[in-house]
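S.,

Sequence below, as promised.
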Amino acid sequence: MAETNTSTLVERDFKLKFGLKFCMLTIAGMLALTIFIFFATAESLGSTYRTAIYTIYNLKVHIFPLMFASFYSVFILAVVTVSIAVISVFFSHKIAGPIYRLEKTLDSVASGDLTVGAHLRTGDQLTVLADEVNAMVRSLNHSVRGCSDALAEIKGCEDRVLGLLAEERPDAEELKEAVNSLKRGIEAYGLATYGFRVKE
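The prediction came back faster than expected:
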C-alpha cells in the first residue's frame, strides 16, 4: 500500500474554506456591531472641553450596558453566534461522519468480515485514509482467500495420500504424485502467508 501523508488527510481546500468562512463571519459580526455602536453613539460631544470629557466618561460607563440592553445588538450577537455554531457543526460533520464510518468498517474487519469497505459521501474528508483502508481490506481478503485455497488443496492431497497408504500395495508413482501435490499445496500456503509478521 502507498504511504499515507497525514497532512493531506483533510484536504487543503476544505481547511481554507472553513477558515475563510469562519473569519468572514466573525469580521461581519464585528463590523455590524461597530456600525451599531457608531450610530448609537453618534452625538455631539458638546461645545466645551468639560462637556466633552463628561460625555466621553458617560459613554464609557454606559457603553457595555447599551450594547447588551439593545435588541439590535443582542440580535446581531445571537445571529453571529448561531451562524458560527452552524458552520462549525457542518464542517465538523464532514470529518466526524467519515471517522465514524471508518471505525465501523475497521470493527467489521476486526470481527473477520473482509467483504466490507469504507464508503464516504461526496465532499467528505479523509478520503485518502478511506482508500488506504479499502486497499488494506482487499489485500487481506486476497491473502486469506489464497490461504483458504491452499489449505483446501492440502486437505485434498492429504486424503489422497491416506487413501493410497490404506491400500495393501499402493502404486509408487501415484503415491509420489500425491506427495508432490501435497508439497505444492504447502508451498502455495507459504506464498499466501509470505510477508506477514506476527507478534508472539
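The first helix runs from residue 12 to 40.

Coffee later?
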